[in-house]
Design goal:
The protein has about 700 residues and is α+β, with helices and mostly antiparallel strands. About 70% of the residues lie in helices and about 10% in strands. It has 23 helices and 8 strands. It has helices at about 1-15, 25-30, 35-50, 50-60, 65-105, 110-130, 130-140, 145-175, 180-210, 215, 225-255, 260-285, 295-320, 320-350, 355, 360-385, 400-435, 445-480, 485-500, 505-515, 585-600, 640-655, 675-695, and strands at about 525-530, 530-540, 545, 555, 565, 570-580, 610-620, 625-635. A 5-stranded antiparallel β-sheet has the order 4-3-2-1-5. Helix 6 packs across helix 9 and helix 11 (about 225-255) packs antiparallel against helix 12 (about 260-285).
Length: about 700
């Protein structure tokens, strides 16, 4: 109808307009003659037209069991008819081929294939002789480090490709130098190409699985036992070679004039051989990974794989290609991911025990996760192509099933990309945290930077994890067709409500942010805040964990910390006092203390932790029992207690040796000579002395 309306202006221009047309009709016709209106109508018509994938899925969804049965019967009927007419088609194809064969003197193509295969083997032998130095270097190449392994594998792959390329040049290249009839040239080149593919697959699998590893000093990319590697090298080579032979045969039958059902019949027959190769490979595989399991479990898995191969072949035969590719991808993808992970770990592992215990390197994570992401994303794009789904196109006419499938595939791609980015960031943070475990000089700038990194990196890791998760969820929901704008707005409203209802939690989080921005404390430092004190062990978004020096653990919210006293920054001054008698030589005592301070400063045990040596500041006060001498020493934080104990012990010993007496409290009692009073006074004096000694020892 829109097309008819758009054709009206052209008709009106070819014939003169009747004079009797009303003015409103003329305006209406002039409106359709406007190019902008015509463009708008064409866009609306295109939007109303269903997309190919939408129509396809709608058609598939509407196929009933009866329609599927009818289509299946038609397919089987065509195959049976092709089987009956196959001899006639064979005779017709032979006649077509005979004309080209007679043009070259009656030589059969199979003899040409054999002759040029021999020519290719001869060129290959020449390459083998001239590549003796290359082979010798590969046999002696070291494979101890990851770099050496990669170089060795790359050299062997390059050798394999060049080795097979020599065969291809000697066979196909030499054949193409001559003039041949078109059909003969196509047949011979096709089967020579199949032979090249078979030999290339065998050479590549030989490099990857290295069945003769011990004999040729090869590195096996995938960690397998020797008999398992030899088994799968042969079977996979046979499977690829037979597939190439079948593909070439099916293509050449079309050139010989065979009908499509006849070519399908031949392809299904050749597929039976491929099915038998797979079943034989499963049942005769060595039980390298199943020795710890029973034979019954091993046999059960073989039966499951047999049923799987048979089901895949049947899906192919009945023409259910979409379900066929889904089943194949879902079975092959997990195995490919597992083999890739094992190969990456095998190549990048180190023989050094210390290096083996470290965190995974960034390269290994990028390679492993990157290959996994590529495999999964490639599988998603492949399935989208097989299902005829355009991932970047979404229209209002799409069915719910189509939107769901497209959204799931797009969400899978998004999750893989986010997972790769998160793992790279996580391993970078873990590697940096591993570097902070090294022991550095106490009090140095590197040590302060190390403690700050140990404090901030765990919080950064948790924050980025939440950020990546939120981004992945939002993008995945958007790919599924969910409007995330209202969700974000609703989340903001809910956040405000939660903020009003949990003001203490919000206060804890904000206070913690400012504590970290101010660099108030770090992991491993000793702090005191009110009644709480201890070493900072860790902290979360809202609280800090303190370990008291007696073992108790405090979990303190940031909002309750208040003013923080950090006892582990830069330096600390420890002050000591000692009381001597009034008749003591103060100058002598000063020199003794200074000498002891210099001895401790030069002591290898205390020199790294002492900033300024011990010295006497002078007489602090005149006490009741003697002169109070004050001393001080500057050390690194947390190291002053050991030095203080050693200094007091040395001072006590030196004072005794030089006749300087430590003052003790005395009590003089005046009065009568009553023995009870004298005994009480003596007991009080002894108690006071014991208390003074106990106080000085602490």
């Amino acid at each position: 109808m829109l097309v008819a309306l758009m054709a009206i202006p052209a008709a009106s221009q070819s014939q003169p307009a009747p004079i009797s047309q009303p003015e409103s009709v003329q305006r209406f016709l002039a409106m359709f003659a406007d190019p902008a209106v015509q463009t708008f109508l064409q866009q609306q018509a295109a939007a109303a037209r269903p997309t190919p994938e939408s129509a396809t899925l709608a058609r598939d969804a509407g196929i009933s069991f009866g329609e599927f049965t009818t289509r299946f019967r038609g397919h089987i009927t065509a195959l049976l008819a092709a089987a009956r007419s196959f001899p006639a088609e064979t005779m017709r194809g032979a006649t077509t081929l005979q004309r080209d064969v007679e043009a070259i003197g009656g030589t059969r193509p199979i003899f040409l294939v054999a002759a040029f295969v021999i020519a290719g083997l001869a060129v290959q032998w020449v390459f083998w002789r001239f590549g003796a130095g290359w082979r010798l270097w590969m046999s002696r190449a070291p494979i101890f480090t990851a770099r050496e392994r990669l170089v060795a594998i790359g050299a062997r792959l390059l050798w394999a490709v060049c080795y097979v390329l020599a065969f291809g040049l000697g066979s196909i290249g030499f054949f193409l130098l001559f003039e041949w009839p078109p059909l003969v040239r196509e047949i011979v080149v096709g089967y020579l190409f199949a032979v090249v593919v078979f030999r290339l697959a065998t050479a590549v699998f030989d490099v990857i699985l290295a069945p003769r590893r011990l004999a040729q000093n090869q590195f096996r990319l995938i960690p397998l036992m020797d008999d398992v590697a030899a088994h799968w090298t042969r079977r996979l080579g046979y499977a690829v070679g037979w597939y190439a032979f079948g593909w070439v045969t099916s293509h050449l039958l079309g050139s010989l004039g065979f009908s499509v059902p006849a070519r399908q019949l031949v392809a299904y027959s050749l597929g039976v051989v491929l099915l038998l190769i797979g079943i034989e490979a499963v049942w005769r595989r060595p039980a390298g990974f199943s020795q710890a399991q029973s034979w019954i479990g091993f046999s059960a898995r073989n039966w499951l794989w047999t049923a799987y191969f048979a089901a895949v072949w049947l899906l192919w035969v009945v023409g259910a290609m979409r379900l066929f590719w889904i089943v194949v991808v879902f079975a092959v993808l997990p195995g490919a991911i597992a083999l890739t992970k094992a190969a990456v770990n095998n190549v990048l592992h180190s023989s050094d025990a210390e290096e083996e215990g470290r965190k995974r390197t960034v390269v290994s994570v990028i390679v492993e996760r990157g290959i996994r992401a590529v495999l999964i994303v490639g599988a998603i794009f492949f399935l989208a192509d097989m299902l005829e789904i355009e991932l970047t196109r979404m229209t209002m006419q799409d069915s719910p099933a189509l939107r769901l499938i497209r959204g799931v595939l797009s969400a899978g791609i998004i999750l893989m990309v986010v997972d790769l980015a998160w793992n790279i960031v996580k391993v970078l943070i873990e590697r940096k945290l591993g570097d902070t475990e090294a022991v550095l000089e106490v009090g140095s700038e590197r040590e302060r930077r190390r403690t700050r990194l140990r404090t901030l990196l765990p919080i950064l890791r948790n924050f980025l994890m939440i950020l990546f998760a939120a981004i992945a969820i939002m993008m995945a929901l958007s790919s599924l067709g969910v409007e995330i704008g209202p969700l974000i707005a609703g989340a903001g409203v809910v956040g405000v409500a939660i903020g009003f209802g949990a003001q203490t939690v919000v206060k804890d989080v904000i206070s913690g942010m400012f504590y970290l921005l101010d660099d108030a404390f770090r992991v491993g430092e000793y702090i005191q805040s009110g009644n709480y004190k201890g070493n900072v062990e860790s902290f979360s978004l809202r609280s800090i964990k303190l370990r008291h020096h007696r073992g108790a653990v405090y979990i303190v919210p940031f909002s309750e910390l208040g003013a923080v006293q950090n006892l582990s920054r830069d330096w600390v001054i420890e002050k000591m006092t000692i009381t001597v008698t009034y008749d003591a030589d103060i100058e002598k005592a000063r020199k003794i203390i200074k000498k002891i301070g210099l001895e401790l400063f030069e002591d290898p045990e205390f020199k790294p932790i002492t900033i300024e040596p011990l010295k006497m500041q002078g007489i602090d006060s005149l006490g009741d029992s003697g002169l109070l001498l004050r001393m001080k020493v500057m050390t690194q934080p947390g190291q002053q207690f050991t030095l203080k104990r050693r200094a007091l012990r040395m001072i006590h010993q030196a004072f005794n040796e030089n006749g300087i007496k430590i003052a003790v409290p005395t009590v003089q009692v005046s009065g009568g000579k009553d023995d009870g009073i004298a005994a009480a006074a003596a007991q009080q004096t002894l108690a006071t002395h014991n208390a003074a000694v106990a106080e000085s020892s602490t």
